[in-house]
Amino acid sequence: MAKAHTLGLFDNFDEAAQVIETLKSSSIDGFSIDDVVLKSPIEHQELAESLGHRPVYVQLYTLIGAVLGAGLGFLFIASSQASFLLQYRGGKPVIPLPPNFVLTYEFFILCGVLMTVVGCFIAWKLPGNRSPLYNASVSEDKIGILVKAEPAAIQEVNAIFHRFHAAEVIGEQAA
To answer: If 142 and its partner were Cys, which of 9, 18, 91, 152 is the partner (CB 3.0–4.6 Å)?
Structure first.
């Protein structure tokens, strides 16, 4: 079944915290606390902790990029130097390690940064559509709680928003 969205805007931090705690303790059919997104102009660590841990995978992209960059960088450099095996080297090694470490380090940083950018685009779902409900006041002075749930559950969620004096509720759906 398609899910509907609703956004409750709050002026008061304590009211928003009470809404999240009430949603967390409620047993509304068709609603999960994992589908709640907090939108605010500043970070509210207490609210983020009450919503639970949300995994972030950008660091994994950085690690993969750095490891691949170092490995492939050294492989490219060493293979280009080893192609000159028939040339007279004058007692020097075919693949000199100290100068290669500098270039390997550069590949390490370059691929790590590029994969971090790719990971950010994937994690942020860019390019993509903006949130179905957006209000500019969330960027200014209000705390927004965006809930994605089934249409029957949206009515109960909106009732909780109104109970805790939401300044505005956007996207109210009738089942």
So the answer is: 9
Question: Tokens in use for 82?
Answer: 């080893």
Per-residue pLDDT tens over the stretch 82-115: 776 666 767 778 788 999 999 999 999 999 999 9
Q: How many domains does the chain have?
A: 2
The reported pTM is 0.69
d(Cα 2, Cα 128) in Å, to the nearest integer? 19
Q: Please indicate, yes or no, whether residues 63 and 100 belong to a single structural domain of this protein.
A: yes
Question: What is the mean predicted confidence (pLDDT) over 16-22?
Answer: 92
DSSP label of 106: H
What's the CA gap between 120 and 36, in Å, rounded?
Answer: 21
- The enclosing domain of 35 has a CATH number of 3.30.70
